[in-house]
Amino acid sequence: MGIGSKLMAFAGLLCMLLLLPLAASQAQTQQQQPQARAVGVTQWSDDEAHFNRTLDSILVPRVVGSPGHQQVRDYLVQSLSGLGFQAEVDEFKQRVPVFGELTFANVVGTINPHAQNFLALACHYDSKYFPNDPGFLGATDSAVPCAILLNTAKTLSGYLQKEFRNRNDVGLMLIFFDGEEAFKDWTDADSVYGSKHLAKKLAQVVRKDPAGQFQQAPRNIDRIEVLVLLDLIGARNPKFSSFYENTHGLHTSLVQIEKSLRSAGQLEGNNNMFLNRASGGLVDDDHRPFLEENVPILHLVATPFPDVWHTPRDNAANLHWPSIRNFNRVFRNFVYQYLKRHTSPVNLRFYRT
Ligand SMILES: [Zn+2]
Fold this sequence. Notes:
This protein is of the alpha/beta class. The protein contains 9 helices and 10 strands. The protein has a 6-stranded mixed beta sheet with strand order 1-2-4-3-7-10, sandwiched between helices. The N terminus is likely disordered. Bound molecules: zinc ion (ZN). The site of zinc ion (ZN) has 5 residues, from loops. Keywords: Acyltransferase, Disulfide bond, Metal-binding, Secreted, Signal, Transferase, Zinc. It is an enzyme of class 2 (transferase). This is Glutaminyl-peptide cyclotransferase.
């Protein structure tokens, strides 16, 4: 998340970066969204020991090019492999402000890589460079979201490794973007380096030649049914609004799962995280290059941003564990329900091709 967008957010509105002229096509996105019902929301147990171990491993300064960055990159690959994902690294070099040429690496884990479509869950793992704060940790930004993704995979592993494995209709993709943070000032150019690279790579037209004739295969990016992007999570009592009309049904599922878990006494406190309302604006983030390629986006970013955002206080001491536990419980049920109920392709795209 960029400083620019933050300043705009705290000017009293959410950041107003409209990235596509979406309105004209929104009427096309009716009826195909899976709706949650209050079933199956209590059968998955927490694994807090795993969450804490995972967060400890990620919560180090990890500016692109630093030893901590390499360490976390390696940890993500090992963790994904250990959880039964096929792990890949999308490595590239790019010149950036302040540092010059840096090596970036998105880390992507997939179950059912040959499935027709994917549910993609994403966060960024780099931490922001502050010249005067080499120890900046970025606990909410985005060490906790990364730990949530791995913990979701861990707590659902009984399902993912048995019943879900070898499905052809849908696969699960975990994306850990590199280089989300600006090195100098947040602009379209100085931000989201990793997601720009990965979106471009996935949007390449793949040709295959099965019988002497070239055929145009679907672009891999078009196989992503929805990109669920987590960011700025871990502070007390976060609020998540719905940012995109075409994924509003999925956002409503989160609202309903939270409600069901609360009624069942499975959540701590009384804060409703998922608000059944449209946001008043958009927040610029790693989803931008995917949105520009017509990928449906479910943006789970706390607004207002945590008050520790981009300060030395964004550390473990200021995390709010009941809020994190609650998020984990709602989110793992959401992922489970999406995959469990999936039978045929879900098309939430603004523009149908
Ligand atoms: Zn940030």
